[in-house]
Amino acid sequence: MKLKELGEFGFIDRIKPKQLWKPGHVFRGIGDDCAVVRTEDAGLLLITTDILIEGIHFILDTIGPRCLGRKSLSVNLSDIAAMGGEPYDAYIAIAVPGKLEIEFLDEFYAGLYERAGEFGVNLLGGDTTSSLRDFMIAITLTGAIEESEILCRNTALPGDHIYLTGPVGDSRAGLHILLNGNKSDRESWESLVRTHLDPYPHVNQGRWIAQSGYAHAMIDVSDGISSDLGHICDESAVGCLIDVEAIPLSDELLEYCDAKAVNPADFALAGGEDYVLLCTGEPELKEVADRAGVKLFDIGVIRPSPERFARQKDGSLIPFQSRGWDHFSISH
Ligand code: ADP
Ligand code: MG
């Protein structure tokens, strides 16, 4: 059997350890945005790893080294944000093909340090090796959070409202333009392309949500909300009803979809790499957030039965499937 037949999440389920040899300090193992371990001083340590590969996650011609440096750290920062954590230290391993100039790597690191500076992240180590063809980047990032604040995927409760911290779909539309569009498309819809190439992680929003006391579960939207909300439902053993009309969409996305006759709901639900946060919590959360100047969009509710539904404009309910950006089952 090939990995693509099993899918990314089927594979992760298959290789999950049956047993932990040192379970005492493990708060969350495989199955969340970060691993979470207890530390001596009652706090929790967050650890996350993400890999970016040329040709799969980025194309050198379109992204540029400085932006790639920022994005490499941003995708990890987003996983720390997803638990409500404060980012701490980064470790980076790169595999460098002969075609890359040292000046490219200088710029890449300038982008990495720029984003690290914005969030107070130390770069403490890594590894450098050669690569036969493609540039590869693997970053491990740690973070910290109090046990009373942490927001996991398995703690959503029936009756919770479901909130997003920003619009979704722009990044997938940006990728669509990079893959299918011409130069004029890239210029006309520059903001969509930029959202795809240069996402800004919602670390501050994640910290605020975790500290608000009104939220119960959280995930970052890296694979699309249908998939990522699906993870919260799976892990929390609940279902959901989302209101398609309430999903925040940017004007640029609506204009682009109108011009190209594509359905914006497809990009919004099944897109990927939005790097906004999706959280569940008490109905008061939005009002408290509004007062604090934190933007939240209420898109639905968590329900006790496991079914997932989306309410369409005409009021009809359609079953809501996890159709996200599973790396091994979508051809792209
Ligand atoms: P995210 O999209 O938030 O980075 P993933 O969907 O990549 O999360 O991963 C889900 C869970 O599976 C995480 O706990 C991650 O650490 C774990 N995981 C992913 N790939 C592997 C692997 N090859 N071996 C062990 N654990 C993995
Ligand atoms: Mg994540």
Describe the structure.
This protein is of the alpha+beta class. Helices cover 37% and strands 26% of the residues. The protein has 13 helices and 13 strands. The protein has helices at 3-6, 8-15, 60-63, 65-82, 102-118, 170-180, 183-188, 190-197, 203-212, 225-236, 251-260, 264-270, 285-292, and strands at residues 26-28, 35-38, 43-53, 86-97, 122-131, 136-146, 161-164, 215-220, 239-243, 277-281, 297-303, 308-311, 317-319. Strands 8-10-7-11-9-12-13 form a seven-stranded mixed β-sheet, with helices on both faces. A six-stranded mixed β-sheet has the order 1-2-3-6-4-5, with helices on one face. The longest helix is centred in the first third of the chain and has 18 residues, at 65-82. The two termini are 20 Å apart. The protein binds adenosine-5'-diphosphate and magnesium ion (MG). The site of adenosine-5'-diphosphate (ADP) has 9 residues, from α2.
